[in-house]
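can u pls check wat happens w/ calcium ion
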Amino acid sequence: MQVVALAGGIGGARFLRGLLAHLDAAAVAAEVTVIGNTADDIVLHGLHVSPDLDTVMYTLGGGIHPEQGWGRAEDTRSVQKELTAYGEGPEWFALGDRDIATHLVRTRLLSEGATLSEATAVLCERWRPGVRLLPMSDDPVTTHVTIADPSTADGTRTLHFQEYWVRLGAPDALAVIPVGADKAAPAPGVCEAIGSADVVLLPPSNPVVSIGTILAVPGISEALAATPAPVVGLSPIIGGAPVRGMADKMLAAIGVPTSAAAVALHYGARRAGGLLDGWLVDSGDAASVATVEAAGIRCRAVPLLMRDLAASAAMAAEALTLAAVVAGR
Ligand code: GDP
Ligand code: CA
């Protein structure tokens, strides 16, 4: 079975860990291709940092900081302290020493002419994440967020997503812009994987700055619309709020209410020109199933809180079951 998943960072990675555990436990012979968000990427101290790719790679490869959900386990901050002593910012984005090794290798490969796909493949030779991890694009795409700022001439300010999220703590946003997406091409293998998939999954990743930026790369939405595989997503919104992070602020910026049903309607039914054949909402949101189904998307309410590996694996099993139902298998 060929499984393709689109993924951001923590939500995507935790779901994927459950997916692999489920496939293993059910003895399903499957190849999983992950199309990772790169619009959070940032250059710091000359190093190319790919937070979402690394979160997937470390989580599936056993190197993730377990409580934090990002960065390396048991990392230290010696380099960051030395940089601060030189007055080198930004002080709001901390890089751990172990993590820096990853960025050094990636940056060296890129400087020698490797693509981000090639650099990611080299890093994965160490981590063996058990999936084929593809960046959404080898071209630069960078999420910028516009916020209100009374001190500027037009009363707004536009900043890099990391500054918006990590430094400012996600204030209300006016707009989200995937800069460069219009000129970006899907990375090699991305559209081919979608086209030859048996099932396509949308983990409970951020609909705007993770899934939304992947979909903003021209060709990826088209490949999803055309694939014979069923496309099934899981809601990152439970009880009208994100489980963690700032998806509510990002959804508000694009005019979508923060609810499991509203995110499904935002993606839309594939049979009506949208993205989804199936959608899972949390058991507590069972009342929204009818709304989603009325839009032409098959919907089930199941537990969607990834409190441990077993819970994530059960969610993956439910997603694959719903995919089989919509595919008529
Ligand atoms: P990021 O790039 O690290 O922000 O990670 P993602 O975009 O992959 O995932 C972020 C989303 O995951 C947020 O919108 C959260 O609401 C969602 N999320 C995190 N934990 C859970 C969970 O246990 N269950 C569900 N359904 N969503 C979750
Ligand atoms: Ca991210």
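The chain has a mean pLDDT of 97.
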